[in-house]
Amino acid sequence: MAEAQAQTTLSALRIDRTAAPTKRHRRMRRWLIPVVLLLAVLVLAGVSVTRRAPTVRVAEVREPLPGEQQTELSAAGYVDSRRRSVIAPQIPGRLMDVTVEEGEPVKEGQVIARLDDQDARNVLSRAEAEVRAAQARLAAARAQAENAQRTTERTENLAKQGVIPHSELLDVETAGSAAREELNAAHAELGVAIRAREGARLQLAHTVVRAPFDGTVARKLADEGAVLAPAALAGTNLGGIVELVDLDALDVEAEVSEQQLSHIQEGQPALIFLDAFPDRAFLASVTTVRPAIDRSKATATVMVRFQSVPKGALPDMGAKVAFLREPLPPDALDPKSRAPRVPSSAVVQDDGHSAVWVVRDGRLVKQPVRLGQRVGEEVALVEGPPAGTQVVVAPDAKRLREGRRVKVEAGSG
């Protein structure tokens, strides 16, 4: 009996797992799932933060410009030619033929164009006819004068002999004087006619337009059929046929502020850098400082002449001029003589050896370097990455490691 009661008591204490969960259990289970999800998100965020690519500031390994250390000041300007003209006819007329094209070289005296010459030929024909008529009048006047001279001589002899009265001698002398005046007038008329013929010939010659100097046709301004007037103004075509430029007489017109003019003098060595050839420099020298100031810009124009005009240089090309304190050494323009440079802050020490952090394809690579001369805030690389390579400036050794992905700071490099 007692044993049966004990079993009944134990059965009452046993947990019935098939029974429905209580309200408290349901509440705990509802809060447990969001907490677990939140912890998982926090863990993932911590992992992403630790793996996030750091941002670095970079600079490019650069090749120094020729004459950089000798440069006194720099200025911008444009290429221009000392001989540059709009070629226009000297007389008005209709353009019949243009014998040159843009970019074509021409020689002094070469025919560039022809105008309609019919009117000029008609004028010349009339002038030549006037010359022939004047020559005939001169011949007749000369014959009359010679006849009058002979008559005067005979009459004078007769008057001396008393054969004819003195009054008749006076009449003959008057006629002889008139004949001489006619002869003089005929001479003058012939001279006028000859000059008119020369003018007509010159007008005819002006219908053929020739090059005034050796050069290259920069622009063609008119085509056949155009009626031209003998005038041309800068920037406005009022009768020009072509623009002719001497490409062997190129200078650079650089604008220099009036405060810096004291640093420039004629004959001063200079270097010209053309925008069209950014990797090249050209030896030059100052030829003229124009004695005038542009009040609107407070600048003066300085003419800088190429030592040797480079092939491919054209008028109106953009240029920069470096005015030098002293002439350059002979090998200054040789790229091999100019070691690449990096900011000094990009160089780190690794076990007593110099190195730089290179950014390559978005990842870090430590590259050993051998340093040369220090120049200002930069240092020359005797050995190391080539010009154009991105290196990290002021690298943080705690954040950087070989192969780590990095982001380049916007605006650096």
Automatic annotation (TrEMBL):
Gene3D superfamilies: 2.40.30.170, 2.40.420.20, 2.40.50.100, Helix hairpin bin (1.10.287.470). SUPFAM superfamilies: HlyD-like secretion proteins. Residues 252-322 form the CusB-like beta-barrel domain. The keyword Heme does not apply. Pfam families: Beta-barrel_RND_2 (PF25954), BSH_CzcB (PF25973), YknX_C (PF25989). InterPro entries: Beta-barrel_RND_2 (IPR058792), BSH_CzcB-like (IPR058647), RND_pump_MFP (IPR006143), YknX-like_C (IPR058637). Residues 85-229 form the CzcB-like barrel-sandwich hybrid domain. Belongs to the membrane fusion protein (MFP) (TC 8.A.1) family. This is Efflux RND transporter periplasmic adaptor subunit. It comes from Pyxidicoccus parkwayensis. The lineage of its organism: Bacteria, Pseudomonadati, Myxococcota, Myxococcia, Myxococcales.
